[in-house]
Each structure stands twice: as structure tokens, then as C-alpha cells.
Amino acid sequence: MASTSSTPPNQWKPWDVFISFRGDDARYNILSHLHKAFKEKQIKAFTDEELRKGKEISSGLVKIIQESSISIVIFSENYTDSPWCLDELVEIFKCQEESKQTVISVFYKVNPTDVQKLTGNFSKAFAIAVLEEVLDKGSSQKADNWKRALMEVSNLSGWDLRHHKDEAELVEEIINDVLKKFNDMSKSDDSYDRKLIGIKSRVEKVEWLLKDKQYVGIWGMGGIGKTTIAREVFRRNRSKFDAHYFAENFREKMTKKSPNDVRDKIICQLLGDKNLHADTSDLDVFTRRRL
User: Fold this and answer.
1) How many domains does the chain have?
2) Which tens digit of pLDDT belongs to each residue from 54-109?
3) DSSP β-bridge partners for residue 224
4) Of the residues 89, 139, 184, 192, which has the fewest C-beta atoms closer than 10 A?
5) Where residue 138 sits, what CATH number does that domain have?
6) Which domain holds residue 123?
């Protein structure tokens, strides 16, 4: 993997969160709960289920890991018997080292000590994966990389299911942690897109105005950067809200669709609801309450 150290750690990336997990252990429980919670919070989370083909991860998947702001690693009992998961972990560790990517470890029905020290059932699964790799490739280099990534990532501060009364509580804590980390990123000077010369002072002015106002108008001739400023303000502050939507090219959309269609699309995004169909200009009481 090429070094990504030249990329500012908090620059706006295509994916908010990348989730590494062992399918059989997590797919129908904690992973499904996390997916639902991320969707409700309008957080773009990626899992690799559709890309799992062959024994080794693709360059496309490596790129997605690099383009994620945060990686979540769900350590479960059989995580290490999957060379695919271990390869993902190595790439995540590289991103954490080289581009300071934020990594969150989750210990799901497994003792953190077993992961950190490679003991118990966790060690047995790892030994099987290592044996298969050595027999297949005749080299232990990759196995050494797996072991180092396991030791380093599992020693990062993380979440342990044993300390929560149920999975719902654990998922809520993880979501709140992710939102806090995004909020902290937004406060950093590095969170400004460095390609946008002079953006920092403009954004700071709008954010200052928004401290005691609910809306601010940005006025000026076309092409001077009004939308760019608005988009940067939106990006830096979206994690403070339960739902958000950037309504771009609004005037153009209003000429092509009815006001109700445009409104309904925005509401669907805010509520995470694909089945909203308002036949009148007035929203029903239930939709208003949800908003």
C-alpha cells in the first residue's frame, strides 16, 4: 500500500466508517444493529461483504479503507481464522500508522486479553490461519504482519461487550463515540480542505454568525464560492445533529420537479425512510412528529 502520509488526517473522505468483521460471528447481530444506527445518523459506513471474492483483498478494497475517516474492527471468536479479515486488519493498521486514521476496536463475545496476547480460542483460530498461509505461500512474512497488526490494534482503547448489559447499549456507545470523534475532527484546523485557498476564514465567519442564529444567507454573484463555503460549514457541523441533508442545486431541481417531490426527497433523507409518499402539500401528523 502506498503511503498516505501526505493526506491530512481529517480531510473530508468518501467514506465515514469502514467496518472489519467476521461474517459468521457478527453479520446478523452487532453488525446489523450498527448498520441500522449509522444509517439513522446519516453516517456512511462500508462493509466488504460484496467484495469478498477470492483469498486476498483487492486493491479496490484497500482504497476504500484508505478513504475512510474511521475504521471499526469487531474482534470476535473466529475473526482470526479468516485470512481476509487479517489482511484488512494489516491495511487498517497501516492507515493508522501512516495517515493517523482513527481506529476503534470492539471486543464482541471475546476476552480482550485473548486478543492482545493471542491466547485461548482466539489463538487457536489464528494458528490455523497462519498454518494455511505458510503451507500455501511457504513464507511466514504475512503471518508476522498479521500478528503485529493484531497486537497493535487490539491494544488501542476500545469497547467490550462484557461491560454492557446488552448489544443495544454497546451499539449506542459506539455510535456516540464515532459522533464525538467526528466532532473533534471538525474542531481541528486540519479539518479544512487545504485545496480550498482561504476557506478557513470564510467558514469561521459563517460559523460565528450561526452561534446565535438559525439560518444565514450567503449572497453574491455566481461562481465566487457561496456553495463551497456552505458545503464546508455543513461538513464540519453535521455530526452535531441527528439528521442532515445538503440541498444542492435547489433552484434547478425546483424547475424539474414539483415542490412536494423536492420536499419529500429531503424528508426521506432526514428520516432514513424510502417509503414516504405525501400526496398533499401538508405533511401528516406522524411525519411531522418524527421530524
Assistant:
1) 2
2) 556 788 889 999 999 999 999 999 998 888 899 999 999 999 999 889 999 999 99
3) none
4) 139
5) 3.40.50.10140
6) 15-184
Which is higher by pLDDT, 247 or 273? Answer: 247
d(CA 129, CA 26): 19
| 166 and 231 in a common domain | no
Residue of 77, 88, 91, 232 marked catalytic? 88
Judgement on whether residues 161 and 283 belong to the same structural domain of the protein: no
Position 49 confidence tier, pLDDT thresholds 50, 70, 90:
low
Per the annotation, the verdict on 88 as an active-site residue is yes
3-state secondary structure the chain: CCCCCCCCCCCCCCEEEEEECCHHHHCCCHHHHHHHHHHHCCCCEEECHHHCCCCCCCHHHHHHHHCEEEEEEEECCCHHHCHHHHHHHHHHHHHHHHCCCEEEEEECCCCHHHHHHCCHHHHHHHHHHHHHHHHHHCCCHHHHHHHHHHHHHHCCCEEEHHHCCCHHHHHHHHHHHHHHHHHHHHHCHHHCCCCCCCHHHHHHHHHHHCCCCCCCCCCCCCCCCHHHHHHHHHHHHHHHCCCCCCCCCHHHHHHHCCHHHHHHHHHHHHHCCCCCCCCCCCCCHHHHHHC
SS3 content of the chain, % helix, strand, coil (to 5): 55, 10, 35
| Type of residue found at 23 | G
What per-residue confidence (pLDDT) applies to 254?
Answer: 84
In the listed set 137, 162, 184, which residue is the last one of a domain according to the structure? Answer: 184
Asked whether the predicted pLDDT for residue 52 surpasses 70, the reply is no
Q: Report if pTM > 0.70.
A: no
